[in-house]
From TrEMBL:
The lineage of its organism: Eukaryota, Metazoa, Chordata, Craniata, Vertebrata. Acts as a protein acetyltransferase. Negatively regulates aerobic respiration through mitochondrial protein lysine-acetylation. May counteract the action of the deacetylase SIRT3 by acetylating and regulating proteins of the mitochondrial respiratory chain including ATP5F1A and NDUFA9. Acts as a regulator of mTORC2 signaling in response to hypotoxic stress by mediating acetylation of RICTOR, thereby protecting RICTOR against ubiquitination and subsequent degradation by the proteasome. One of its GO terms (biological process) is endosomal transport. Residues 1-22 are annotated as: Disordered. It comes from the Eukaryota. Belongs to the BLOC1S1 family. One of its GO terms (cellular component) is BLOC-1 complex. It comes from Jaculus jaculus (Lesser Egyptian jerboa). It catalyses: L-lysyl-[protein] + acetyl-CoA = N(6)-acetyl-L-lysyl-[protein] + CoA + H(+). InterPro entries: BLOC1S1. The gene is Bloc1s1. This is Biogenesis of lysosome-related organelles complex 1 subunit 1.
Length: 94
């Protein structure tokens, strides 16, 4: 009778251990899936931020070029107006 109780106790302990091990493996699997999903979501955000930064860099470069062209053109217009004013002054004095 005592040996039967011991065997039953050991069998129940083994069942509990197996159930606990199964739950542990399931928890690890679930944690792994969650981690992979979070990393994938984060990577999408990082990729989007990188693309946005590239677009902004391109826009900045374009604006710099246009600003330089506008400054050059403005300088030319100022020169033309000054020459025109000088010509008018010379014409009026003459």
């Amino acid at each position: 009778m005592l040996s039967r109780l011991l065997k039953e106790h050991q069998a129940k302990q083994n069942e509990r251990k197996e159930l606990q091990e199964k739950r542990r493996r399931e928890a690890i699997t679930a944690a792994t899936c969650l981690t992979e999903a979070l990393v994938d979501h984060l990577n999408v955000g990082v990729a989007q931020a990188y693309m946005n930064q590239r677009k902004l860099d391109h826009e900045v470069k374009t604006l710099q070029i246009q600003a330089a062209q506008f400054a050059k053109q403005t300088g030319q217009w100022i020169g033309m107006v000054e020459n025109f004013n000088q010509a008018l002054k010379g014409f009026l004095v003459w």
